[in-house]
Specification:
The protein is of the alpha+beta class and 1390 residues long. It is 34% helix and 32% strand. The protein is built from 39 helices and 46 strands. The protein has a 26-stranded antiparallel beta sheet that branches. Strands 1, 2, 3, 4, 5, 6, 7, 8, 9, 12, 13, 14 and 15 form a 13-stranded antiparallel beta sheet that branches.
Length: 1390
């Protein structure tokens, strides 16, 4: 009986269990009302937004078991661009009518247990319309469990397979089931996304732990009515949010919100008729990309005939960018690119045949073609290159850009492989290397998009590497390794390991440079498969039989794998026992530099490096500065999600002075991504091997002997082997090697041959032809477009339309140049000397007019982008500049006279204009003229108040009084700043600035003249000669000058005898001064009333920079010299004269600058004066350098330089027995403007807490009665690591004592700098002058290597000794450690 009761209870419970599986009963048609809306913009209400809306009836009926029909009835499409929520959606009736036939065709889908399977549709249904069906089917995706109410799972959907959270509950009143489903759209392992321009960017997961630049989430709510066969979906709503911010999301972010509602209206029995024709499988629920990548969101094009439309745009570009860049040229260039992306190979071929004989059209076409990036464009470039229809510059640009910008897919990879291994490419080694590297980069881009890419794409490279190994072709092996390194495919690990010691038998016969290339090829693989590379790199680093350079490179590869604490500790233990100092120094410095890393992706590495650093012996830090070293420095600002890092590696060899390798790399972080922006490396491995057979390789010799032998071997470069490379250089961008060059004896021969081309008849003939063409007049126009930036990310939405985040930058530069030259006397037809020698004897005149212009446009877009409809929020920035120039120049080389005239040139209304605005745009392909556009900033209400005006209209004009040119700046701004204090509101809106330059209404400006005259003729060209304003004629001044010379000559013999007594007198005076100063110093220190400082004592002035027989002496002050000659122009011809003046209405006004040099007195003078006869204003600068311990200058201005003056003196000496320098400023009458500024500054200081600030900064401030109209600055060095600064003003004394310096200053007590004592400036200048006339080929033929090496070693020995002293004194490393320790101690908690 109990068993029967138990069985009945179980049966009753089973009968009451609810079936939650959604079900559509057979023979019934379920009619739903559907609405899907997508809106993008900033999250705040009251700003502009853009979006679309789709509404219709959805009919679902079962056709067979698990197969259903879905039909859309009464579809309506709306678009929105306006202020939300004030404005309304506008119907896109024409677009809905055009798509009505596709909407009317029902689709089929598989549906079982709440999961959507395959989707079937007729061929006439486009991908865009089918994706709208997928948006509806995505709502029906329900994986419900009867046994759990709350659970998580990975669920497939339109966005991919994403992490999904379910919560199921029952409404007790209605007995309906409520289901809430939420998805994290950033946590999908099969995410549907399309990236353009981001293939080389690395995802920085650690950078987005606190903040994320792009987030996405979706929430679904269902009301289910349970039934016997299953649950019926009575209502469903969905909300999806995508948020993007380049920096911190707390300051505001752009958002795109999608909403869907699906409500059951009725269940009827009317059948749904399937469409005629076959239904083809069209994938699953996942979003299907169509032509989104071919369509830019900037402009919507209705392409009916790509070939004809592209030809039309090409004609527009060539016709409207001749004299000046058209304002829409960048946008038209983007339009040409878009049309060529849609064009077929035959279309491109036809456009080329039509325009290839027209140079302007040809240039525009070939500038756009590499950026197109389609397989058809790459095939065209390949075929035309093979056919020889491109010139060398054309195919270099086309192939270099085409390989790196082409869309990576299997077809493009095959095209690249055929191009790389074609016979014609083999005949051009340099070009072949670039193409091969581009081939590897293309594979890398494809595998970044398709992680499961096959290794067969690299099979040609693997086969070529195996063939090269068998033949022993080292250059081919290195090239193959670089290609594999660019590709970074894990399948290439085994072929690379065959060339590594301990892993492959072929490694034994490989030189070190090949092994190094093999290790470097592991670096990109290490980013994808670090666990696979770590054991290989660690074994190579630990192998003590391996060459030190290879081991250090292995250390670089090992740290690229981001080793753990255990692995880093293993490396540290190995360093402790490392016998090779170079390897130990390199690894130690690398670990030490990583301990201070702040980059998020190196956070764990920095922690591991800190543990390893504590294991290491500090003695390793005391290596020579010539040892191998690694440097790493980075900075990351988390609130801005941005940062930068720099790394440098110096791999040195103690045997020579030349490092074996130097590598520098820069890395950037932005918006949760990271990229190795640029890397440059130089290696001298071949040179090191070539030196092994020379005395430079003698390990027992001292360092300078090694340097001598090394320099001798380098200078005897002709004896080096021609078959082996001496060095190499490579360049990487975004982790991809773009180009490299191997330098060998042949390379040097070619360089010398090109350097001596100027002496060959052909070069003379070319120069002669160029001069003749210039005489006949030259006129040309040139335009260069460029698509600088194209970065895009395309994502699906739950509505079924894609959204795009994109950044574009396009620019066009153009120039028109006309030039004509006149040469007097004319050049002979057959000159006996070179053209340059002939030109030096002529009067050369040239007139030129140029009109360069640049137009650049930037776009940042977020919104819907399809080939049928676009609705997006766009930030547009435009910059346009025109700089017309008309110049007439004249050069009389024989008279050393030069003149330039700047003439008026026709200028547009605005020579420069910049604008920025943010708009919401909505448009569709069927009604393009009815495009809707609205500013994101609404009109400010009349009562709006803001700390920043919402609207600004300003105009500022300035007229130059001399040129009579009027410059106006017009600024216009309208923003949403009145809505709040968010900085983003001030950006939203419209902003513009324009600059116009035009002539004033006064006297017409004719030209600006600038003349320069050198030598004796300079005095004749001065408009007004110098006039001292003193009594007496120039003849009297001349007699006095001659008398002074005679007196100095008579006293010449007695000067040497008197100098010794003078020195003794000065010495005793100095001693007594020192004693008295120390006594006064002690008295001052005991005083409590006023803070005093010791006196400044000048150094002895018995050493002069001039010759012993000169007149420079302690009395050679400016005052004494000016008493002899107020203005040097009265008695000395100017060294040079510069005259600048304007000419308007026949009147010349301007200024002239004359320079005078009085060598006997070490005196120089500059005189600036007006060229007008009625103006006596002058500016005089008089400077004298009487000794190496003193310099002074006097500046006078006003009428004849006598209204006001100021004297500046600089002296070196001692301050309380410390080497010091004193700077004094003395004035008699300051300009009115300076006086007013000083008074206002003093008044401001009375109200500001300057005393507290000074005390906080450690500055002593004391009132004192110092000299009036004097300011003195004393800088002293009590020690080489500290600094005393004292400033004395008329009423105050400021002092900051014992300021710590970041490095030791190598200045001795007598003020001398040992490192500069042997510097011969005059000798250096003379050597540079001799180099200007050097015959390169003759220099190499008559070169004495032994003598040159001996001389170079002696000079280098002195330099290195002083360098080592200077470096030891500076103690940068010790200071850096101390500073970092102090910084960490103060900021450790932060």
């Amino acid at each position: 009986m109990r068993a029967v009761v138990f069985a009945l209870t179980v049966a009753l419970a089973a009968s009451q269990q609810v079936n939650l599986v959604p079900e559509f009963a057979a023979g019934k048609t379920y009619v739903y009302k559907y609405e899907g809306q997508l809106l993008g913009g900033l999250p705040q209400e009251g700003l502009g937004k853009a979006g679309i809306k789709v509404s219709c009836k959805v009919l679902i009926r079962a056709e067979a078991r698990n197969t259903y029909l879905l039909k859309l009835a009464d579809p309506q499409i709306y678009e929105y661009a306006g202020i939300w929520p004030k404005d309304q959606f506008a119907p896109a009736s024409k677009l809905a009518a055009a798509l009505n036939a596709q909407f009317a065709a029902p689709i089929k889908f598989e549906y079982a247990n709440g999961a959507v399977g395959k989707v079937f549709a007729p061929a006439r249904v486009s991908a865009t319309v089918l994706n709208l069906h997928r948006g509806i089917l995505n709502i029906l995706q329900l994986n419900l469990k009867n046994t759990q109410n709350v659970y998580e799972m990975q669920e497939a959907g339109a966005h991919g397979v994403c992490k999904t959270h379910y919560m199921i509950s029952e409404d007790a009143k209605t007995h309906q089931i409520a289901v809430t489903k939420s998805k994290d759209l950033t946590n999908c392992y099969e995410r549907v996304v399309k990236d353009v321009g981001l293939a080389y960017a690395e995802k920085c997961t650690e950078c987005q732990q606190k903040l994320q630049s792009l987030t996405g989430t979706a929430t679904y709510n269902y009301r289910l009515k349970p039934g016997d066969a299953g649950a019926q979906i009575s209502e469903a709503t969905a909300e999806e949010l995508h948020q993007f911010s380049l920096f911190n999301t707390m300051t505001g972010a752009a958002q795109i919100k999608a909403k869907q509602t699906l409500t059951l209206v009725e269940v009827q029995g009317n059948p749904i008729t399937a469409a005629s024709g076959d239904y083809a499988a069209r994938g699953s629920l996942k979003y299907e990309f169509g032509a989104e990548t071919l369509q830019t969101p900037i402009q919507l094009l209705k392409i009916t005939n790509a070939q004809a439309q592209a030809a039309e745009v090409l004609q527009h570009l060539t016709a409207n960018n001749v004299a000046m860049v058209h304002e829409d040229a960048p946008l038209k260039f983007l339009q040409l690119i878009q049309l060529l992306r849609v064009a077929t190979f035959e279309n491109i071929q036809s456009i080329w045949n039509q325009h290839k004989t027209k140079p302007p059209h040809r240039r525009w076409f070939l500038d756009a073609l590499p950026v197109v990036g389609t397989p058809a464009a790459l095939r065209f470039i390949n075929e035309k290159f093979q056919a020889g229809e491109f010139s060398a510059p054309e195919f270099t640009q086309a192939l270099l850009l085409g390989m790196h910008l082409a869309t990576a897919d299997p077809e493009a990879i095959q095209q690249a492989a055929r191009l790389a291994f074609s016979p014609k490419t083999r005949d051009m080694p340099a070009l072949r290397e670039v193409i091969m590297l581009g081939y590897g980069s293309m594979v890398a881009r494809y595998c970044a998009e398709v992680p499961t890419c096959s290794a067969d794409h690299l099979k040609p490279v693997h086969d070529r590497a195996a063939e090269a190994i068998a033949k022993g072709e080292m250059s081919e092996i290195s090239l193959a390794l670089k290609v594999l390194g660019n590709a970074g495919h894990p399948a290439s690990l085994k072929p690379i390991m065959k060339l590594l010691p301990g892993f492959g038998s072929a490694a034994a016969s490989m030189p070190t440079r090949v092994k190094v290339d093999a290790i470097l090829a592991l670096r990109n693989i290490a980013k994808k498969e670090p666990k696979s590379v770590q054991p290989v790199a660690l074994q190579l680093f630990m192998d003590k039989t391996l060459h030190p350079e290879a081991r250090m490179v292995a250390c670089i590869a090992l740290f690229d794998t981001k080793p753990s604490v255990a692995l880093m500790s293993t490396v540290a233990s190995a360093i402790e026992k490392e016998p090779k100092k170079e390897v130990a120094s390199f690894a130690y410095s690398y670990i030490k530099s990583l301990t201070r890393s702040m980059a998020p992706d190196l956070m764990n590495v920095a922690a591991a490096a800190n543990v390893a650093f504590r294991i290491l012996n500090p003695k390793l830090d005391r290596q020579s500065y010539f040892s191998s070293t690694a440097y790493h420095l980075d900075l990351y600002v988390s609130p801005f999600m941005a940062g930068a890092a720099g790394t440098a590696f110096i791999i040195n060899d103690a045997a020579t002075i030349v490092p074996r390798a130097v590598v520098a790399k820069a890395r950037a972080y932005l918006a949760g991504a990271a990229a190795d922006v640029v890397e440059i490396g130089v290696r001298t491995e071949g040179l090191q091997e070539a030196l092994q057979g020379t005395p430079a390789a003698d390990e027992n010799a001292d360092r300078f002997t090694k340097i001598k032998h090394t320099l001798k071997a380098l200078m005897n470069w002709k004896a080096l082997p021609a078959s082996k490379p001496l060095g190499s250089i490579y360049f990487k961008a975004f982790g991809q090697e773009i180009a490299f060059a191997n330098i060998d004896k042949t390379y040097i021969d070619n360089a010398i041959e090109q350097a001596t081309q100027a002496a060959k008849p052909r070069s003379r003939q070319l120069l002669k032809e160029a001069v003749k063409a210039l005489q006949d007049s030259i006129s040309f126009q040139y335009a260069k477009p460029v698509l600088a930036v194209e970065v895009r990310r395309i994502l699906p939405t739950t509505v079924g339309v894609p959204i795009e985040l994109g950044v574009y930058t396009a620019a066009v530069a153009a120039a028109t140049v006309n030039a004509k030259a006149t040469i007097t006397p004319p050049l002979p037809e057959n000159p006996e000397t070179s053209i340059l020698d002939q030109l030096r004897k002529t009067d050369f005149q040239v007139q030129a007019e140029a009109r360069p212009s640049v137009n650049m446009q930037n776009f940042a877009v977020i919104g819907v982008n399809t080939a049928l409809i676009q609705a997006a929020v766009m930030a547009r920035g435009k910059f346009h500049i025109v700089a017309p120039v008309k110049v007439a120049a004249r050069a009389d080389f024989a008279k050393r006279s030069f003149k330039v005239e700047i003439l008026p040139a026709a200028a547009p209304d605005h020579v420069a204009a910049a604008s920025f605005d943010m708009v919401a745009v909505a448009r569709n392909i069927e009604d393009h003229p009815a495009q809707r556009s609205a500013s994101l900033a609404p009109a400010a209400p009349s009562d709006a108040r803001s700390w920043i005006p919402s609207s600004i209209q300003k105009s500022l004009c300035v007229t130059d009084p001399y040129f009579h040119i009027k410059v106006c700046i017009d600024v216009s701004s309208r923003s949403a700043g009145f809505m709040g204090y968010n900085p983003l509101y001030c950006i939203v809106g419209q902003h513009s600035a324009r600059i116009s330059v035009r002539r004033d209404d006064a006297a017409a400006f004719e030209r600006l003249e600038i003349e320069a005259h050198i030598g004796p003729q300079a005095a004749q060209k001065l408009v007004k000669q110098s006039n001292s304003g003193e009594t007496g004629t120039q003849g009297e001044n001349f007699i006095l000058l001659k008398l002074r010379e005679y007196l100095e000559a008579g006293l010449k013999n007695s000067s040497s005898s008197s100098s010794s007594s003078s020195r003794s007198t000065n010495s005793s005076a100095s001693s007594s001064m020192s004693a008295s100063s120390s006594q006064s110093s002690s008295r001052a220190q005991s005083s409590q009333t006023l803070l005093a400082y010791g006196p400044f004592r000048k150094f002895h002035m018995d050493q002069y920079l001039v010759s012993p027989g000169s007149s420079a002496s302690s009395a050679s002050s400016i005052e004494a010299l000016q008493k002899q000659a107020k203005l040097l122009g009265d008695s000395i011809a100017p060294a040079f004269a510069i005259i600048a003046r304007t000419v308007r209405s026949g009147r010349k006004l301007g200024y002239q600058l004359a320079a005078y040099l009085d060598k006997p007195n070490a005196r120089a003078q500059l005189v600036l004066s007006s060229t007008a006869d009625d103006k006596k204003w002058k500016l005089c600068v008089d400077a004298v350098l009487p000794s190496k311990h003193k310099a002074s200058a006097k500046v006078g201005w006003g009428s004849e330089c006598q209204d006001s003056s100021a004297t500046i003196k600089a002296q070196t000496g001692l301050h309380e027995s410390s080497p010091a320098a004193r700077f004094k400023l003395k004035w008699d009458q300051a300009p009115r403007l300076v006086t007013i500024a000083a008074m206002n500054a003093i008044r401001a200081c009375e109200y500001l807490p300057t005393g507290k600030v000074a005390r906080w900064a450690g500055i002593d401030v004391n009132r004192a009665e110092n000299k009036a109209k004097n300011i003195a600055l004393i800088v002293a060095l009590p020690t080489k690591r500290s600094l005393d600064v004292i400033v004395k003003t008329p009423e105050m004394t400021f002092a900051k004592m014992a300021m710590p310096l970041p490095a030791a200053v190598p200045i001795e007590k007598d003020g001398s700098i040992p490192a500069l004592q042997n510097w011969d400036m005059q000798g250096t200048i003379q050597k540079l002058e001799r180099i200007a006339n050097l015959d390169i080929r003759a220099a190499f033929q008559d070169f004495n290597a032994d003598a040159a090496a001996e001389e170079a070693v002696n000079a280098l020995k002195k330099l290195l000794n002083e360098y080592e002293k200077l470096w030891d004194q500076l103690e940068f490393r010790a200071f850096a450690e101390k500073w970092l320790n102090d910084f960490n101690a103060q900021n450790g908690d932060e």
